[in-house]
Amino acid sequence: MAPFLAYEDKGTKASTPLPLVLIHGHPFDHTMWVPQMAAFSPARRVITPDLRGYGASPVVPGVTPLSTFAEDIAALLDSLGVDRFILGGLSMGGQIVMECYRQFPERIHGLILADTFPAPETPAGKKSRGEMADRLLREGMRGYADEVLHKMVAPYADADVAAHVHRMMTGTPPEGAAAALRGRAERPDYRDLLTRVGVPSLVVVGEDDAYTPVSDARAMHEALPGSTLRIIARAAHMPNLERPDEFNEALAAFLKQADSSS
User: Fold this and answer.
1) pLDDT surpassing 90 at residue 118
2) What is the C-alpha to C-alpha distance for residues 11 and 220, in angstroms, rounded to an integer?
3) Is the pTM here over 0.90, yes or no?
4) Could you tell me which residue, 80 or 3, shows the higher pLDDT?
5) Which pLDDT does position 3 carry in this prediction?
6) Helices 142-152 and 123-139: angle between axes, nearest 10 degrees
7) Which domains does the chain show, CATH number per domain?
8) Where are the alpha helices (DSSP H) in 65-210?
9) Between β-strands 46-49 and 85-90, what pairing exists: parallel, antiparallel or unpaired?
């Protein structure tokens, strides 16, 4: 059966080292991981899907909860014959990683949580996400993309990086983005789950991230047993694109640790 999700799959298909699966955030697509695909696919398999409603994957209007995104990831990896893997995600992608660990922890042998947070939505946040979903359906993505670009990446970010981020945002179907916003508003509380994680974990955050500040990353690091915290200087919400060398250095060190423990 053909996989539901569009995806990119690069690198060796050998059983070791374990494949690296990277989940993009909102409102992006799998191309946000281009620097990591380039850096790590020569030595290991790297799989980067487009979530439903994003990129080249099918658009499903309505409400898409994090549990559905996680089920899609499991089904994709089943179709690719990938049973064990290291899983990472940024922002909403990080919350999907937590949901994946809740659903099928036995398959995951390392967690990368980038610029994300585990707490449930507040009443004000639910209202705000619902209003934004309505706005995107009414107006499209461009106005929103223009407004948030320099929170997604820092105002001092490389112009080509900012342009890439803006293209991803404006290329996202509003129906898919709205469905994810509504689903994310109803997400569970993952804070207790983090205290029970039994695999190596990396928490990484941009020093100037306004959406998920360093304080959120420190709290996750303290909750996760034996985790590593890396703060990327001169980066906002997307350090993997803004400072790819520093991000990849942190990721390489973590993968070495995860490979030895698996």
Assistant:
1) yes
2) 31
3) yes
4) 80
5) 61
6) 130
7) 7-261 (3.40.50.1820)
8) 66-79, 92-103, 123-139, 142-152, 159-171, 174-184, 191-195
9) unpaired
